[in-house]
Amino acid sequence: MTTTVQTTAAxxxxxxxxxxxxxxxxxxxxxxxxxxxxxxxxxxxMGPSGSGKSTLLHLAAGLERADAGRVVVAGTDxxxxxxxxLTELRRTRIGFVFQSFNLIGSLTAxxxxxxxxxxxxxxxxxxxxxxxxxxxxxxxxxxHRPRELSGGQQQRVxxxxxxxxRPDVLFADEPTGALDSTSARTVLxxxxxxxxxxxxxxxxxxxxxxxxxxxxxxxxxxxxxVDRLAGADTHAVAERLAAxxx
Length: 246
Hints:
Layout: E1 3-4, E2 9-20, E3 27-38, E4 42-46, H1 53-60, E5 68-73, E6 76-77, H2 83-92, E7 94-98, H3 109-119, H4 126-135, H5 151-163, E8 169-173, H6 181-196, E9 200-204, H7 208-211, E10 216-221, E11 224-230, H8 234-245
Parallel strand pairs: 4-9, 4-10, 7-8, 8-9
Antiparallel strand pairs: 1-6, 2-3, 2-5, 5-6, 10-11
Organism: Actinoplanes aureus
Pfam families: ABC_tran
GO molecular function, one term: transmembrane transporter activity
């Protein structure tokens, strides 16, 4: 079951906990986290390896269920949502971009972008799909398949696919992790333009340069929020991350 909640946050977590394993082998990947991620803002999540970054992202996006606490996404409390409700939410109100692109190799860029609309039961309009591809600079690549595109171009197709449903929140897990520096800069410029236009973005990254492009950075360690920075440059983000990795 989902319920509507009055909130100004794009994502709100209250007392959220996620544990893997049992007994002496139990690992608390996310530990009693309270966090509000602003609507219309870009927040980066960083931390040492094993800090719980990706688990936090998956909980916030409804890809995993919390063991305790409450999760509200775009004003909808998804804590007790059923599988079908979560599937519907992910198809219509949430966008995902991952490091590995997750494109279907047999489909063209245009067909990959249209797929979420088809899965949501909508008949995609060609003009709509091509407009989204044009917005990420790929108007001339609509008929190309993933193998005919560079890594940066594939990631831009993935972003277009995530944005075609006009999601309330875009979640990005290491979106530049598999890209060269030039392609990474292009993708980050695109995300920055989207955030400036009012898109809510939550991004996990290990790269201080990528995190510095966001409006704010949240740091995790051992499943807990330990620090925050706003408006910091790459050097400041790198220093703060190094401090928490010691």
